[in-house]
Write a structure and sequence with these properties.
23% of the residues lie in helices and 28% in strands. The chain contains six helices and 15 strands. The radius of gyration is 23 Å and the shape is elongated.
C-alpha cells in the first residue's frame, strides 16, 4: 500500500524534526520554506539536499497531488486561495482556542496559566482560527521551566503526531470548531522583555517570567544593577512571607547561604544566585539590606 503524499511547510530544526517523525508513514515530496536563508542556516539546506527534498512553493505543492500540506514553524501569511490540496494543517505551539498567535505558550505562562501544549488544526483565512483536530497539554510543575514543557511536547509529537495526521486524512477525527470561542492574540517576545524593569508586580509574575526566559530555551531572566545585566540562576517565592506593603525592589533580607529576599508588590522573592560574564555570583556579594534595585 502506497504512503499518503504530503508536503511540509516551514523552516529550520522544527522541519527536520517533523520529517523524522513523519517520514515512516508518509511520502514527503518537498518543503515550502517561509524565507530563503541559506547563508545563515546552511545546515537546513544540507538536510534538504541529503534527503532529496526539493524546495517548493504552494503552487508547486498543488501540482504534486499531495493529500496535505503540514505547516510547522512557518512565519508568513499563507495564500489560502492558492492552496488546492485536501488538507492544510498547522502545528501551533499553544493551546487553542484561547492562545493564538506568536509565543502563545509563553503568553499563557505570563498570564498565570501553566498548562501549555500544542494544537493540530486546520488553516483558514484567520490566524490560528481553523478547526481543531488534536491537542496535547502539559502542566509545568514547580521548579520546572518552559524547557521541560517543550521536551514533553516533542516527545508527544514523536510518538503520536504521525498517527493523528493519518487519522485526519482518513476522516477518523471529528474536528472541533473554534467558532464563537474567546481568545487572545499575542505579540512576539524579545530578550529585553526578560529584563526586570519594574519590581512593583506580584511575586508570581517574576516566577512566570523566569519560567519563560530561563535557559536553555530562553535568553535568560535578568536584572540590571550598576549598568550591568545579571542573569538570575535560581528564583523562588519566599514561603510564609505575608502579603504586605513595602518598597518594591528593596532588599529585605540576606540569608546565611548568600541569597537575598527582594520585596515585590505583594510578598517577596528569593534570588539564590546570579551570573555575570559567565561567573556565578552570590547576591550577598553585591547587595545590602535596604538597597533599592
Amino acid at each position: 500500500m502506497s504512503k499518503p503524499k504530503i508536503v511540509l511547510a516551514g523552516f529550520g530544526q522544527p522541519i527536520i524534526d517533523l520529517y523524522s517523525w513523519l517520514q515512516a508513514d508518509f511520502e514527503i515530496s518537498g518543503v515550502i520554506p517561509d524565507y530563503h536563508r541559506r547563508a545563515k542556516f546552511p545546515f537546513f539546506y544540507e538536510f534538504l539536499e541529503q534527503n532529496q527534498l526539493p524546495l517548493l512553493d504552494f503552487q508547486e505543492a498543488n501540482e504534486r497531488s499531495s493529500e496535505a500540506i503540514i505547516v510547522y514553524n512557518y512565519n508568513k501569511i499563507i495564500p489560502i486561495d492558492e492552496v488546492r490540496v485536501p488538507f492544510l494543517l498547522n502545528i501551533h505551539m499553544g493551546l487553542l482556542p484561547v492562545y493564538r498567535g506568536n509565543n502563545a505558550n509563553s503568553w499563557a505562562i505570563l498570564n498565570g496559566d501553566y498548562t501549555v501544549g500544542y494544537t493540530l488544526h486546520a488553516i483558514n483565512d484567520k490566524l490560528d482560527d481553523g478547526d481543531i483536530y488534536y491537542k496535547f497539554s502539559y502542566e509545568i510543575q514547580p521548579k520546572q521551566t518552559y524547557f521541560h514543557a517543550k521536551q514533553a511536547m516533542k516527545t508527544d509529537m514523536e510518538l503520536h503526531l504521525s498517527c493523528q495526521i493519518s487519522n485526519v486524512l482518513q476522516g477518523k477525527i471529528q474536528p472541533q470548531s473554534q467558532q464563537g470561542a474567546s481568545f487572545i492574540y499575542a505579540c512576539p517576545l524579545i530578550p529585553e522583555d526578560g529584563i526586570i524593569t519594574n519590581w512593583n508586580l506580584p511575586s508570581q509574575d517574576f516566577i512566570s517570567k523566569n519560567i519563560v526566559f530561563a535557559r536553555p530555551l530562553g535568553t535568560g531572566f535578568k536584572l540590571k544593577y550598576n549598568d550591568a545585566l545579571y542573569e538570575i540562576n535560581q528564583l523562588s517565592v519566599v514561603s510564609g512571607f505575608l502579603a504586605s506593603k513595602g518598597v518594591p525592589g528593596a532588599v529585605v533580607l540576606i540569608t546565611n547561604s548568600g541569597a537575598v529576599w527582594i520585596k515585590t508588590a505583594d510578598t517577596a522573592i528569593e534570588i539564590q544566585s546570579l551570573t555575570l560574564d559567565g561567573q556565578i555570583i552570590l547576591p550577598s556579594e553585591i547587595f545590602k539590606i535596604g538597597q533599592r534595585l
